[in-house]
Write a sequence for this structure.
């Protein structure tokens, strides 16, 4: 599997985990993460983040999005 495909699969999984953690539908979670730089973060730090548990990744995404103006 190519790096790009692994990154896409990982991003989809993270969006789904974020949605579940905050009782959002997947579309809402994706838009929130996109608007507050979470998707960009996953892309830029894939090599580090994919080694962590999804719970840790969701916490990282929440903290990052808050720093960028998010309210979740």
């Amino acid at each position: 599997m190519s790096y790009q495909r692994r990154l896409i699969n990982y991003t989809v999984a993270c969006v789904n985990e974020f949605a579940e953690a905050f009782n959002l539908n997947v579309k809402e979670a994706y838009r929130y993460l996109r608007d507050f730089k979470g998707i960009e973060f996953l892309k830029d730090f894939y090599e580090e983040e994919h080694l962590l548990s999804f719970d840790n990744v969701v916490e990282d995404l929440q903290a990052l999005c808050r720093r960028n103006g998010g309210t979740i």
In short: The CA atoms of residues 61 and 70 lie 10 Å apart. Residues 3-67 form one domain.
